Amino acid sequence: METQDRWASALTLYEVRQHTLFNLGRTVSYAIIGCVFGAAGALLYGTIGLAGFLRPAQGVVGICIGVAIMVMGLTRLAGYQQGAVEGVVAGTGFGSLFARTYTVISRRVDRWVNGIGIIGLGALHGLLPCMLLYPAFLYAFAQGSPVYGLLSLGALGVGTIPSVFLYGTVIQSVSTRQRQVVHYGLGVLFVGLGYILVAMGLMRFGVMLPLPDIPYYQPIAESEAVA
């Protein structure tokens, strides 16, 4: 009976509207930042392409970013401590920028959370240190396509809406064991994603590793064909 009461109290039309607006802001923020990272990668590839070094440059970028993502995944599998990696990134220039942005906006949380301004709070999540977003942004950069970065990060935002919605409306607490399972699953995902980028980078140097047939391969393949 208590569980039913929690469902009834959580899933009012007002709560659904607020969480929908929050996730809308979050998804748009992910997509825009993904577009920026993709554009930055495209700029790098274009600049190096003019100098005739596109292929090795793509290989180096893919390998470096792939290794970084795999390290993130391994930290999860080896017993991730909440905030460990986020704390390191927060100390960088990007982290400081995110922290300042968060401070400015957080002062208005109480005013925004109960109105349409909650869209801004959702958008803020794209600027916060997050182990889920780091690999996604790096991946968009490695692909070197603003359109692809926009679509892939937008898809990430949409794909995580169910879990974020349930966590905010129904699941009020998560046990330590459940968090460990989530960290482990993310670790496996990150290692796999990192491997794909490393394999794609090594291909630029003639080293062939097994790769699944996935659409993520296309942006770099097309840029290579143009080069």
TrEMBL record:
Regions crossing the membrane: 30-53, 60-78, 115-141, 147-169, 181-203
Database matches in Pfam families: DsbD_2
Residue ranges of domain Urease accessory protein UreH-like transmembrane in the record: 18-195
Record key words, sorted: Membrane, Transmembrane, Transmembrane helix
InterPro entries from the UniProt entry: UreH-like_TM_dom
Top-rank lineage group of the source organism: Archaea
Listed PANTHER family: HEAVY METAL TRANSPORTER, HEAVY METAL TRANSPORTER-RELATED
Protein name (database record): Urease accessory protein UreH-like transmembrane domain-containing protein
Native source species: Haloarcula hispanica N601
